[in-house]
RNA sequence: GGCGAGGUAGCUCAGCAGGUUAGAGCGGUGGACUCAUAAUCCUCAGGUCGGGAGUUCGAGUCUCCCCCUCGCUACCA
């Protein structure tokens, strides 16, 4: 038997977690893949009558939180509290049913982090070493790589992070960066030594090698981990110098636990909080492994924290190990990675403002498997799938038969469950297969099985033709019988869908006038029973609302303007590629076919507000010079009046000599997102005309009298 | 550059211990019906299974090479 699917025993007890969302950002649809996946799994186990505890918490520590709080002028505790409220509200909106939601900035977490650390230290798994790091004297703090910006030592690109160049992909130490600056205050950092604490991961190599092949993690993940073993396990730096928002390390003043040290411990802290609240025994869950299963659901991006550090920490500190770590892939939207700049970054809140959460729960369920695969949210597919499966197939069974029972029989089902040729029993029997799919996290297969049954139920109604029976004299019993059968089939299906659609299940329970549906009680058909009034169980997805959601999302972070025809044709290869992606994403989000939109980048109508998003300005070319190493680019220095001076790299060298440009006026896209190019930062785009197959490039120029900085509209 | 995942009908995906005419849902076509949220039921629609080579009596299904997409990573976890 697959170790990931423990044998079914009715007295299974489980603790289940989703990864802790970071308190620095909002919940988005990508996060929700995981929370919905976990929630469905948890609800399934509860539906089966098992004890299943679902805990989570906000992940609150680290430099990004500290700095953001500073910028907002509030204490980090306040920021963290606010984000937690927001997160919990979003989760509630999607019916994520945590049994406990806590915070890593909690006394429980501090106590457990200290306990684990001290235990590891006592057993010799912690060592100290001096580390040289960038230090900002003005801010009085060490700077993580991401908080250092400077010029890439390899290619000279400006404004790069301290660890790697986004322009040329070079990697380096922060100390190699030219003209390094603190990302917070802009001053130059200095190198400074400091003692750090390291967790000696290599002490656990043998144990880990065994554990990752024990069936606790997916094979794909285990394969990837082999790479790390091959490279050799390195000690893990678990301390940070103050100021740092986190927990101070025992016996080490002004040293704090690195955020990733105490984050997974948050699973335990939340458990403890739950136990204290409900009188359960924490030790029974986390200090021994024969009472509870412990399952972590995570994204594939954080697998090494959960499959190397985390089990090693637990093992070293004398706690139990997770029963399993389940990783899922990333979300794409219309085939593309979610992206703020492409306007496809959908927050949980934006979705909830326009659409029913149950749509998304079903759609994700229909596409989720146990494998580590990315999941694509294709919005057209989303609409047709939800509408046809949920409304057309499932809800329809009830909606087409409830009326007869209500109008002709006062809502009464047949006094005895009618002869149905074994249909009901087969529906019940399919529960075993569906349960197995749920258990194995093959939700897509589970949904497929349910839909096949829904089709069968509709076929049954078709064959019985209650609307014919309703017209026939003396066919009352047959009419009542066929509708009773259909509704009983519907009830079984809703039981199967309850983990995915808790809100609809509630409505159905009210409609059928029955106690909460459970896996066990699905076997008993309803007879001699009065149902309630049938009301709409689910509205169809309205494509207009999807459009509204996308528009709103774009409004939150305006995308680059639609590619003007005169975009400089010469950019680096990588940059050109990015521009194309932007186009594809935009056309994909619109209702026109992507292929058609791509072949006519200028096609498709837009509204004035969209056009107004492009800030076109008159600019005077103050200076123009050729760029060393670039054969098509000219570096232009532009005077844009009140907007100041801009540097723009334009691909017009083939048509203009630098000397001929100085002093003349032209048009610039002033709000184009600055693009890092190999030769420096380009802060806009000048407009020029060019024709397909026709040579030449013609820079736009306003009539005499225009002044630099004037808005063009 | 390294590693991982993937490229199957218009769309979303199954299939893969190699074996009869490659499947499903949606969309599309034609028909039926009118109870139902223009839902449902029946029928049809024929995609060189990314390209090439190989193994085999026989390959989406195995091997090798190549192309493309996505992601991670780049002696820094």
Oligomer: single chain
Number of helices: 23
The outline comes out as flat
Mean pLDDT: 81
Number of strands: 27
- Evaluate the radius of gyration: 31 Å
How much strand? 15-25%
Distance between the termini: 69 Å
Q: Uncertain regions: pLDDT < 50 for 5+ in a row?
A: 1-7, 557-607, 691-695
> Largest sheet, if any?
6 strands, antiparallel
Helicity range of the residues?
Answer: 40-55%
**Structural class assignment:** alpha+beta
Describe the structure.
With 713 residues, the protein is of the alpha+beta class. It is 41% helix and 18% strand. The protein has 23 helices and 27 strands. The strands form eight sheets. Strands 18, 19, 20, 21, 24 and 27 form a six-stranded antiparallel sheet that branches. It has a five-stranded parallel sheet with strand order 3-2-1-13-14, with helices on both faces. The longest helix is centred in the middle third of the chain and has 22 residues, at 443-464. It is flat. Mean pLDDT is 81; it is low at 1-7, 557-607 and 691-695. It binds one RNA strand of 77 nucleotides through helix 6, strand 10, helix 9, strand 16 and helix 12.
């Amino acid at each position: 038997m697959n170790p990931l699917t423990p044998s079914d025993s009715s007295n299974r007890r489980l603790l289940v977690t989703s990864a802790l969302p970071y308190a620095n950002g909002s919940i988005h649809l990508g996060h929700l893949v995981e929370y919905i996946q976990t929630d469905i799994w948890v609800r399934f186990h509860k539906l089966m009558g098992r004890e299943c505890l679902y805990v989570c918490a906000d992940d609150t520590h680290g430099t990004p939180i500290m700095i953001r709080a500073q910028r907002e002028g509030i204490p980090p505790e306040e920021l963290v509290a606010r984000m937690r409220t927001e997160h919990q509200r979003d989760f509630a909106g999607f019916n994520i049913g945590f049994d406990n939601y806590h915070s890593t900035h909690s006394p429980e977490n501090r106590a457990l982090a200290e306990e684990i650390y001290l235990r590891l230290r006592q057993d010799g798994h912690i060592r100290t070493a001096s580390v040289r790091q960038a230090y900002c004297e003005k801010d009085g703090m060490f700077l993580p790589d991401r908080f250092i910006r400077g010029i890439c030592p390899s290619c000279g690109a400006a404004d790069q992070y301290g660890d790697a160049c986004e322009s040329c992909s070079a990697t380096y130490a922060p100390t190699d960066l030219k003209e390094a600056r603190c990302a917070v205050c802009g001053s130059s950092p200095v190198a400074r030594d400091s003692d750090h604490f390291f967790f000696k991961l290599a002490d656990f190599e043998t144990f880990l090698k065994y554990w990752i092949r024990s069936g606790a993690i997916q094979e794909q993940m285990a394969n990837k981990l082999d790479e790390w073993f091959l490279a050799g396990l390195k000690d893990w730096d678990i301390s940070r110098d103050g100021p740092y928002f986190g927990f101070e390390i025992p016996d080490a003043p002004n040293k704090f636990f690195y955020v990733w040290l105490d984050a997974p411990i948050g699973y335990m802290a939340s458990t403890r909080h739950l136990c204290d609240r409900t009188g359960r025994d924490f030790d029974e869950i986390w200090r021994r492994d024969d009472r509870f299963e412990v399952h972590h659901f995570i994204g594939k991006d954080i697998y090494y924290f959960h499959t190397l550090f985390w089990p090693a920490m637990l093992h070293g500190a004398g706690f139990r190990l997770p029963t399993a770590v389940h990783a899922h892939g990333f979300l794409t939207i219309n085939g593309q990675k979610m992206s703020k700049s492409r306007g496809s970054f959908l927050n949980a809140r934006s979705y909830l403002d326009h659409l029913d959460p149950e749509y998304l729960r079903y759609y994700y369920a229909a596409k989720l498997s146990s494998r580590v695969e990315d999941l694509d949210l294709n919005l057209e597919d989303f609409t047709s799938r939800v509408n046809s499966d949920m409304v057309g197939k499932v809800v329809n069974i009830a909606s087409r038969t409830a009326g007869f029972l209500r109008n002709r029989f006062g809502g009464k089902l047949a006094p005895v469950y009618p002869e149905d040729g074994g249909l009901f029993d087969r529906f019940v029997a399919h529960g075993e297969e569906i349960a197995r799919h749920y258990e194995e996290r093959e939700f897509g297969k589970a949904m497929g099985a349910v839909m096949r049954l829904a089709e069968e139920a509709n076929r049954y109604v078709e064959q019985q033709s209650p609307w014919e029976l309703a017209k026939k004299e003396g066919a009352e019993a047959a009419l009542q019988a066929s509708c009773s059968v259909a509704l009983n089939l519907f009830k079984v299906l809703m039981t199967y869908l309850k983990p995915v659609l808790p809100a609809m299940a509630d409505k159905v329970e009210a409609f059928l006038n029955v106690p909460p549906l459970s896996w066990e009680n699905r076997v008993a058909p309803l007879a001699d029973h009065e149902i309630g009034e049938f009301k709409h169980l689910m509205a169809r997805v309205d494509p207009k609302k999807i459009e509204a959601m996308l528009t709103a999302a774009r409004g939150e972070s305006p995308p680059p303007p639609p590619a003007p025809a005169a975009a400089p044709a010469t950019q680096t290869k990588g940059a050109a590629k990015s521009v194309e992606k932007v186009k594809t994403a935009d056309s994909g989000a619109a209702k026109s076919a992507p292929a058609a939109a791509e072949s006519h980048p200028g096609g498709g109508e837009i509204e004035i507000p969209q056009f107004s998003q492009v800030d076109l300005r008159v600019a005077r070319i103050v200076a123009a010079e050729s760029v060393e190493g670039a054969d098509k680019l000219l570096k232009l220095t532009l005077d844009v009046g009140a907007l100041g001076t801009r540097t723009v790299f334009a691909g017009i060298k083939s048509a203009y000599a630098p000397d001929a440009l100085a002093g003349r006026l032209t048009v610039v896209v002033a709000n184009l997102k600055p693009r890092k190019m190999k030769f420096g930062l380009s802060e806009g785009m000048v407009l020029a005309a060019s024709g397909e197959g026709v040579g030449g490039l013609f820079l736009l120029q306003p009539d005499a009298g225009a002044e630099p900085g004037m808005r063009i509209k």
